[in-house]
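Practice problem: predict the structure.
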Amino acid sequence: MQGNNLPSPPQVISLYQSNNINSMRIYNPDQPTLQALRGSNIQLILGVPNSDLQSLSDPSTALSWVQNNVFNFPDVSFRYIAVGNEVDPANGDPSQFVLSAMQNIYNAISSAGLQGQIGVSTAIAFSLLGQSFPPSQGSFRGDVTQYIDPIIGFLVQTNSPLLANIYPYFSYSGDPTDISLEYASFTSPSVVVTDGPYEYQNLFDAMLDALYVAIEGAGGWSLGVVVSESGWPSDGGFAATLDNEFTYNSNLIQHVNGGTPRRPNGPIETYLFAMFDENNKSPELEKHFGQFYPDGQPKFQLNFGAGRAWDVYAQNNTSVYRESISSV
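Answer:
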């Protein structure tokens, strides 16, 4: 949504439907988008902006928020409420309000008997991990355990998954000496990393398994993970080409039908970032994650349908706007 040349919400809904895209993520409760979603049967991850977390730590404010943005749209298919995106205490984010906001929104949803139908979670950045290699040693940073451990406990209690933004691109572009393009883009012809009994042929699985291990270390043995963002840019940075974006995204769509070495029973619910290239974003790299150009033409052909639930998300955050597409 961070562009000055993007289609209107009704046009976006039509584009989703014509491409068999059945899920969407928005990063704040944009009213025109919610109106356009009415009756569409597109499943929605609705985001709570980080700027709203403090106010929603008040139960009455949280109830009003849910009334205005969820209960007022009974014909919108809400899947999850993502309470905050990539909140990190080290960045000065309002991390102390995330859990209470989650609890209050969950209680508001429960007051209408919708618990179990709409999950309440938060979307974390992979950078909350202090160690991710080898995957069996995955653990959260010491400075975030007091933040993330109670959230994991809440998610286990409410049977909601943790949302996580996972980008092999950034790991690869930050260390191309030790990480190969093939390993990052699902094109390695053979196993690259052996970690005890587990063998890794792609970086996505290694990152996700490291997160699973970290979650288990925090008591979340039963906790599932939804990959709420993943993607590859087509321009503006190292290895950012249209060919690489297509290779990563098309392989990701196929790959998440299965699981990871540690949790082989897939599929993995995954959201592909982003719906459109967005010319108002910065730095330059961030402008080029779209699957579609602003005029609605695809940058390349991806199969979102064919009897599968490939989904897309449009995203909207007053401070950081992104968009994505989801698989499964």
